[in-house]
Amino acid sequence: MPSRMRRSVWTLAVFFAVFFSVLALLPWIGAEHLEWTEIIAYVLDGQRTAHGLILIHQRIPRILLALLVGGALSLTGATLQVLFRNPLAEPWTLGVAGGAAVGAFLPQVFPALGSVCGPLNATQFLSLLGAGGAMAVVWTFARRAGTMTTHALLLAGVTLSIVCGGVVMLLVYFIAPFKVASFHRWMMGGLDVIGYRELLSMLVLGLPGMLMLASQAREYNHLAFSEEMASGHGVDVARVKRLTFLGAGLTTAACVAVAGPIGFVGMIVPHIVRRLIGFDYRLVLPCSFLLGGAVLAICDGIARTVIAPTEIPVGIITAVIGGPAFLFLLGKRTT
Amino acid sequence: MNDGRGIKLENACFRYAENGWSLEIPELRLGTQSLTCIVGPNGAGKSTLLRLAAGILKPDTGIVRLGGQNLCGMPRRMIARQIGFLPQETPPLFDYTVEMVARMGRYAYAGWLGDLDVEGRQAVDAALAAVGLQAMRERPLSRLSGGERRQALIAAVLAQTPGTLLLDEPTAALDIHHAVSVMRLLADLGESGRAVVIVTHDLNLAAMFAERLLVLVNGRVIADGQPGQVVCNKVLRQVYGNDVLVVDHPETGGPLVVAQRQADAAERRDHA
Question: Is residue B74 part of a domain?
C-alpha cells in the first residue's frame, strides 16, 4: 500500500538523518578544540597539521567504528531476541560476546598464535571460534530445558559472560601480570583506534554477518509467532536459524575482536526502536543498526570527554546506562 | 476418488524418542471432505497427526503425500500454497496488528521485501472479510478478544489461499458463542470448496458441524466416519470410559454428548 510504503520511507529517512548528524557533529567534540584553519590546511594543502591529524586519523575513524560496532551489536541483538524468544537477549547477556572475548584475547597472551589465517588475523579467527562455542553452549542449554523460562536463559548467559571474563583475567594474571591494567581496560570495551585498519578488518567478518541477518528480516516477523506457525506460512525455519547463528556469531566476533565486549547496547536499542516504530522487522533491523550506531557513538563521545584529557572505556558508559535499564525491563516482565 | 487428491499418509509412523510413544497410521486420507474433525483424549496424538499432515514433522517410517508427491521433499513455500497450517495458539513475542498478521499469510507468494501484488492484497482483504475483522485492521492483537485473535490467525491461513486448512484446536479456550462462530466459519469455508481439518476437544461442536469425524486413541485411529456413526455410546466409551452418555440433540436430532455424574449409571440403565 502506498501510504504504508511512504511511512516506512519516512521512518528510515529519520533514522538515517540521526545516524549522519552524529557522524557530522561528533568529530568536532573532544578534548582538543579543533581549528578550522588547520583542518583546511591539512585537507586541501596536505600540510601535516596536528588538528588535521586528530580529525582525520583519530576522531573520524573512531566515530565510524563506534557507528559500525553499535549498529552491528544492535542488529544482532534484535535478531537474537527473536531466535531465543527473549526480549532481553543480546550478544553480551547471552555470553556470546564473552566467548568471543576469550578467543580474541588468546593471541595477546600467546603471541605464537598471532600468525595470519588467510584474510583474517588470529584475533578475529579465534574470536569467531569463541563466539561460536558460547552460542552452542547457550543454545544447547535453551533446548535442553525445553520450555525454559526467560530468566533461566539469561542467568545462563550472564553467568557464561562472567566465567569468560574470569578466564581472561586468570590468563592475564598467570601469563602477563604486567598487562593487567591494559587488559582490564580492554575487557570493558573500548573504541580507541588510530587510522582505518581496524575499521576495515572489522568489515571482513562483520559485513557478511550483518548481511546474513538483514536478509532474514521478513522471516523474523513470522518466527516471532512460533516456529510452527512460521513453517506453516512457508518459512524455511531451519535455514533462518542457521543464518542467524552464523550471522550473529560473525558479527559479534568482528565487534569483540576490535572493541572488546561492549554490553547492553544490543539489548536496549532494539527495544527503543520497537517502541518508536512498531514490530515489523523489515524496519526494525535497519533502524536498530542506525540508532545503535548513533547511541554507541554518543556514549563513546561521553567516554572520551567526561574526564578529558584522559578517557574511560565506552563499555563503562554503556554498562552504567544500560545495566539499570536491563534491570527495569527484567522487573517489568516478572509482573 | 481420484488418487492424487488431498493428503495421504501411508504406513506413517512417528515415535517420540523420550518416552517411546508412537503414532501409527497404516493408511489415511485427509482433506477430501469439507470439514473433518479429529477428536480423542489428551495425548492421543491428534496434534502430532496434524503436524505430520502439514509436513511440520517428518514421519520416521512411511510417507506423507500431497497430491501424490512426497511432502517431505517439497520446499516449505510450495507446501504453504496448498496447505494452511495453524498450530495451537502461543502468545506472540510482539504485538502485531491484525492487518500485519493477515499479510503474513502471503509469505509464500510475496517478493523479497514482502510487497504484495494486487492478487495478494485481494486475498488479504477477502480473508479479513471472511472472518469479519475488516474494521479492526489497524488494531494490535493485544486489544482483541480471544475469539477475535483466533479469527485474525485464521485470516492469515485463509490469505494463503490453500486448498486444505489444518487447524489445531481453533476453538480452544473460547466461550460457546465464539466457538460456534468459529465453527460456522470453518463449515462455510468447507462448503465453499476448501477442505478443512481441525483438532478439537469439543465432541458436540464436532458432531454438529463435521462431515467426517476421526477418533484417535493412543496413536491409533479407532473410528472414522460420519458423526452419526462415530458419536455413539459404543465408540465413545472405548475412549473416555463410562463417564459419557450420548443423547439426542433437541434441535438437530443428531448426537449430543453429555457427562455422567456416576460412571456406572448408564450401564445399569443399559442392563435394565
Answer: yes
CB-CB under 8 Å, A87 with B95? no
**What's the CATH code of the domain at A144?**
1.10.3470.10
pLDDT average, residue stretch A253-263:
88
In this prediction the pTM is 0.89
The domain in which residue B247 lies consists of 232-272
Please indicate, yes or no, if residue B152 is contained in any of the structural domains: yes
Q: pLDDT digits over A114-169, tens only? A: 665 555 677 888 888 888 899 888 888 777 665 556 677 778 888 888 898 888 88
Residue of B nearest to A86 (CA): B93
ipTM field: 0.89
Q: Is B86 a residue whose pLDDT tops 80?
A: yes
Given a cut of 80, whether residue A236 has pLDDT beyond it is yes
Q: A279: which chain B residues are within 8 Å (Cβ-Cβ)? A: 94-96, 100
Residue B62's CB is within 10 A of a number of other CB atoms, namely 16
Per the structure, the count of domains in chain A is 1
Residues from chain B contacting residue A226 (CB–CB below 8 Å) = 87, 90, 92
Residue B106's nearest CA partner among B128, B91, B87 is B128
Q: What is the pLDDT of residues B187-210, one digit of tens each?
A: 998 888 899 999 999 999 999 999
Task: Give the relative orientation of helices A237-259 and A197-215 as an angle to the nearest 10 degrees.
Answer: 160
φ/ψ bin of A146: left (φ > 0), alpha (ψ from -120 to 50), beta (otherwise):
left
Of A211, A207, A217, A256, which Cα lies nearest the Cα of A78?
A: A217
Please tell me whether residues B32 and B22 are part of one structural domain. Answer: yes
Q: Say if residues A274 and A284 touch (Cβ distance below 8 Å).
A: yes
Question: Tell me: the pLDDT tens digits for A263-283?
Answer: 889 999 999 999 899 999 999
Which residue, B57, B126, B175, is CA-closest to A231?
Answer: B57
Give the structural domain span for A75: 2-334
